[in-house]
Amino acid sequence: LSTRSEPSLGPRGAGHPPGHPHPPGGGGAAKSSATVSRNLNRFSTFVKSGGEAFVLGEASGFVKDGDKLCVVLGPRGPEWQENPYPFQCSIEDPTKQTKFKGMKSYIAYKLVPSHTGQQVHRRYKHFDWLYGRLAEKFPVISVPHLPEKQATGRFEEDFISKRRKGLAWWMDHMCSHPVLAQCDAFQHFLTCPSTDEKAWKQGKRKAEKDEMVGANFFLTISVPTGPGASLDLQEVESQVDGFKAFTKKMDESALQLNHTANEFARKQVTGFKKEYQKVGHSFKCLSQAFELDQQAFSAGLNQAIAFTAEAYDAIGDLFADQPRQDLDPVMDLLALYQGHLANFPDIIHVQKGALTKVKESKRHVEEGKMELQKAEGIQERCNIISFATLAEINHFHKIRVRDFKSQMQHFLQQQILFFQKVTQKLEEALHKYDSV
Q1: Which pTM was predicted?
Q2: Does residue 386 lie in a domain region?
Q3: Residue 110 and residue 92 in contact, taking contact as beta carbons nearer than 8 Å
Q4: Residue 112 carries which DSSP code?
Q5: Rounded to 10 degrees, what is the CA torsion of 214, 220, 226, 230?
């Protein structure tokens, strides 16, 4: 990420209202020469995100009211301030469209945001552009990953259906996030009329020229102040370490579940279907053999056995169709969460980098090499990053509980319906013997 390099204007004071430039601060010109060292690895996320420049007091910018992001103290600790106007957005009717007189084909998706009710059409490349902008702008927010690109088979029905479901999950997570949902670039994406190419390009350029990225992004974060609002650094470190261990374990178990579900789905589509239909075929052969006796009183038995054969054949088809009802949706959810889990090491790295700078500045103060005011400026700015990180962790857990609850309910409901269908087939076959 590129960060604006400007003269240091010091820390963002908690009391400075948005809409005003931040005044100089951070201890002024210290008599002592000690400074907090810079990371040697200039490619680290802490450096590239602008986190280091912000913590060292080098960020400067004019924060407009619309750019302000608030972290509040909720029952579970720091949380992003809720979106006062929540909305949802459906993604429907993927249709093949062409341009350049039919030389280029693409799939367009119909989006209908609930807060406008106005449909717009977007291509995958538009989603991809938006994802890139948001991932660059929000270094301590987990922007959900898009379903993967695919070079071949892009117009096949199964692929289009799967991608639409993946985009629907992506959109749900965007709309559910208090910060991402209200971001200008996302709102432009949702509301700009598909036919107005000029307006689309203007909004796109505006998003690409956004100055509140990199180190400046952290200036937009407003955190709780006053008694009881300060964070204990050791406690923050402990919470973040606990979350890091949690995400590692969740990632491992998500990979394992995905592999198991994939394997189970494959067995149902091929192996189970084949085995049940093999049983059905064997019953059919038996009924055909029985028909050779040509005894009138055995006709009912022959028909009942033939019906049993058909029941097993149908059960084989039920097994083959079932994964798309229950296992596929679970795997779609896991794919989305694997994207989130891949984001968190970088988010944690930014927070850890800030904590390291605070520890270093405290040591300099103890050794008499740095003025206390300068160290306090570093701690205050680290505090902002910590509040934002903990707010994002809280949001992740809140959405995770919501998603996995609903998906597990759906999975079990579909499993029950499946076995009810299987039972119904077997009961129908059983009743055929009543009149034999």
Answers
A1: 0.86
A2: yes
A3: yes
A4: E
A5: -20
Q: Identify whether 130 is part of a domain.
A: yes
| 280 and 167, same domain (yes or no) | no
Specify the pLDDT at position 410. Answer: 97
* Two tokens, residue 100: 């350049």
From 411, 349, 397, 405, select the one nearest 176 (Cα to Cα): 397
**C-alpha–C-alpha distance, residues 60 and 394, integer Å:** 29
Place of tokens 């931040």: 22
Where is the domain boundary, 178, 201, 230?
A: 230
Instruction: Tell the burial category of 5 from Cβ atoms under 10 Å away from its Cβ (0-12, 13-18, 19+).
Output: exposed
Provide the pLDDT confidence category of residue 24 given band limits of 50, 70 and 90: very low
Structure-token pair, residue 188: 């432009």
Strand 221-222 to strand 69-74: parallel, antiparallel, or no bridges (unpaired)?
A: parallel
- Do residues 262 and 139 both lie within one domain? no
- What gap in Å lies between CA 221 and CA 71, rounded to an integer? 7
Residue at a domain's end among 210, 230, 250: 230
Long-range contacts of 266-274 (CB under 8 A, 24+ apart): 268/319, 268/320, 268/322, 268/323, 268/327, 269/319, 269/320, 269/323, 270/320, 272/316, 272/319, 272/320, 273/316, 273/317, 273/319, 273/320, 274/316
- 208 closest CA partner among 188, 191, 181, 193: 188
How do residues 393-431 score in pLDDT, each as one tens digit? Answer: 999 999 999 999 999 999 999 999 999 999 999 999 999
Phi and psi angles of residue 20, each rounded to the nearest 5 degrees, phi first: -130, 140
- Residue 434: what are its φ and ψ, rounded to 5°? -60, -35
Range of the domain at 163: 89-230
CA distance linking residue 414 with residue 416, whole number of Å: 5
| DSSP 8-state secondary structure symbol assigned to residue 29 | S
Q: What is the DSSP letter of 17?
A: P
User: What CATH number is given to the structural domain containing 125?
Assistant: 3.30.1520.10
